[in-house]
Amino acid sequence: MHLSYINLRRVLTNIPLKMKKTLFILTAVFFFGLVFSQENKVLESQIVKQWMDYSKGFEYKDYERIASHFTYPAIFNNSTPIIVKDKKMMIEAYKSVRENVQKDYKYSLIDKWKLINITNEFLILDAHYSRYNSDYKQILSGRGLYFYSKVNGNWFLKEVTTLLQNKL
């Protein structure tokens, strides 16, 4: 190990200063890119887990659980945008949606997603999801934009916008 360090030192002393600076910059860019990528993967995992918990709340008709994922006021944009002023109003909005969902609806799964970082305090989860019936057959595919806002260090939904729903 000591021998390879000595060889590396000899090589580095023979490299012109301009090239050393370039190597240093490239190494720094690579390192910081790697660190940022890891941080982004952790955030992405956290947001997707939160979406799955929100989805479980929908599946189980647990409206308190759903409402706990939001910061208020929030926007619920299913077919007509609604400004939801508080938790009570959000619970009523989701009760209405859940009671009018497909009769044989059982659960939802996220199929694919893209996390879009807008700022350190605001991001969007572009999610493609599927709904299934009790026979585990897909009955709907959909896409939604889930706008998250960071409040006191925690991420909460600020807006849910349904873009597309295809009944199968």
Q: What is the multimeric organization of the chains shown?
A: single chain
* H/E series: HHHEEHEEEE
Portion in strands: 35-45%
* Dominant shape: elongated
Number of strands: 6
Low-confidence stretches: 31-37
Helicity level, as a percent range? 40-55%
Q: Would you identify the CATH architecture?
A: Roll
**Can you summarize the main beta sheet?**
6 strands, mixed
Question: What count of helical segments does DSSP give?
Answer: 4
Report the average pLDDT across residues: 85
* Class from secondary-structure proportions: alpha+beta
Task: Give me the side-by-side strand order of the main sheet.
Answer: 2-1-6-5-4-3
Q: How far do the termini sit from each other? A: 63 Å
Q: State Rg.
A: 24 Å
Instruction: Estimate nothing, just give the exact number of structural domains.
Output: 1
CATH class: Alpha Beta
CATH fold descriptor: Nuclear Transport Factor 2, Chain: A
